[in-house]
């Protein structure tokens, strides 16, 4: 993945809780065998509603999605992350993310920013009020700032995840450094374990 | 128990890094794998352990007769790509029509590949199903699929543990589906995030393997990546004689190891939830997430009655989408379609239960009823028992195995505004087809609803 250090951009307010990955990218889109082009399918059913926030011209070009709690629940489809990134989002801010979605984000370089519910609500309201509001997220410092409204908050990633974002490391390459450990582990697995052959 | 399995699988450990965990079994299907295989090809990598990997076609397959072609060209292509990828990388693949083919979470257990104490992953969130055997099993994304293909391991952070203790015994007519819907209603869609759930207590120990799989399957709907149940004699009896289960002395050795997985007396959990099984009744979901459930005898709730503003807003939005009015009796809601199937409720026991309700009765006028077995083995077993005759005599459609209307990737879909009673796991907006309205229920309630035309329990039928 590409390194991610500092993201500065405008936000889109998605004022809904429990947004599941079926909404982020409906299952019709999962039949594709490519990894690109999913942006057109992002929230495609909700986008049929002219009043849906992504159809609001004032939010075109925004790179930070500000969402309600429990974002990314349900299906493990990584297509949800591909769709958000393909559309142009670089970060998602929420007070709580579903586990698999969060993990998928960190593999692709979409920054999941978990903030206190109070901060999330404050940002949601501010972005809804002012589409021009500038938000800056700094990965190394673990900070989210919107100086115009006096928001200066922190978020926590595991130190290793932070390093991966900053350096754009490839997970498989990292794991393969432990080849000797893998081979040693395989040698002592119990004999009764099944094989598919 | 989760910690024991975890510790037995740590390949590499370092301060400040996630643990590298060995994966005993990797299940693959057509939807979340093509991009992972592409990644391997781009990097010039191979599959480390094809002998610990198995693939099947399930999400896209039509459930109509096998001698008909697949009409959707994009679905067809995805299935062909799976076959080609498996051939290229040396992975056993069960295609449409193969006797071993079926929903990935149905075939793992029935082939005996799912065993206690294993780590099992699949690019599908309902991998939690396999936890019913005391395996640590969870869904992963496509990048992780690629990672496991290449390394047979995953870097993971140790989850917290939550015990869900269900005391007492379930009343007659109450199924494990009702129990898990009640649990999700209790802890919410986010309640399990960051945890592995361990279901235990008298009510859990009394359940069959099929019923345990239904519970663990829906752990993800409470936000938990995995759910587990301690292996016991019921588990061992299920496994004995299965194709890939150990045989003879190896089975005895395995049993000893499996018995030691049980959570130690006095072990502590990060959180514990206690439920009384005797208070649980058949449940129906009324909203658009699986925590929005109520007993079938209840009324549709009023959003104003929710104290939390986010829940209130979500309930109001759900009622609008579902076309329901606050205060109406759930039993007065009529449906157009009934779906019995999915990795939650498509096993032989589910079909037997549904058949016991359909037997000698007729589906309500104008209702569409799809019954989709979880695998070809389940289908063959049901036919051997004559269940298919009972279904078709009642006016239901008996289909070929697959995920089908659970997620509407194949032609089995709801139309805009169409309402279903479904034994699947997700009632999200559009899950069963654009604009469709899904109510989650047990196979018993699904069958009774098919007869009555509105939500009903078998006891409500004349």
Q: How do the helices and strands line up, and which of them pair or pack?
A:
The complex is a heterodimer of chains A (197) and B (462).
Chain A: E1 6-14, H1 21-24, H2 44-47, E2 64-67, H3 79-87, E3 91-94, H4 99-108, E4 111-114, H5 117-129, E5 134-138, E6 143-146, E7 151-154, H6 159-167, H7 171-176, H8 179-187
Parallel strand pairs in A: 1-2, 2-3, 3-4
Antiparallel strand pairs in A: 1-5, 5-6, 6-7
Chain B: H1 2-8, E1 10-12, E2 19-22, E3 25-28, H2 34-43, E4 53-56, H3 73-89, E5 92-94, H4 104-110, E6 119-122, E7 136-139, H5 142-151, E8 153-156, E9 160-167, H6 176-187, E10 195-200, H7 202-205, H8 209-217, E11 226-228, H9 233-239, H10 249-259, E12 271-276, E13 283-285, E14 293-295, H11 309-322, E15 337-340, H12 348-358, E16 368-371, H13 376-384, H14 387-394, E17 397-398, E18 419-422, E19 437-440, H15 443-452
Parallel strand pairs in B: 3-4, 3-6, 4-5, 6-7, 9-10, 9-12, 10-11, 15-16, 15-18, 16-17, 18-19
Antiparallel strand pairs in B: 1-2, 2-8, 13-14
Helix pairs in contact in B: 2-5, 6-8, 12-14, 12-15
Q: Strand content of the residues of chain A, in percent?
A: 15-25%
Please tally the helical runs of chain A, counting DSSP H or I stretches of 4 or more residues: 8
Number of strands of chain B: 19
CATH class of chain A: Alpha Beta
- Shape, principal axes of CA atoms of chain A: globular
Helix content of chain B: 25-40%
Helicity level of chain A, as a percent range? 25-40%
Largest beta sheet of chain A: what is the strand line-up? 4-3-2-1-5-6-7
Structural class of chain A: alpha/beta
Q: What's the CATH architecture name of chain A?
A: Alpha-Beta Barrel
* Oligomer kind: heterodimer
Average per-residue pLDDT of chain A, rounded, comes to 96
**Overall pLDDT score of chain B:** 96
What is the string of SSEs of chain A from the N terminus onward?
A: EHHEHEHEHEEEHHH
Query: How big is the Rg of chain B?
Result: 21 Å
Low-confidence stretches of chain B: none
Inertia-based shape of chain B: globular
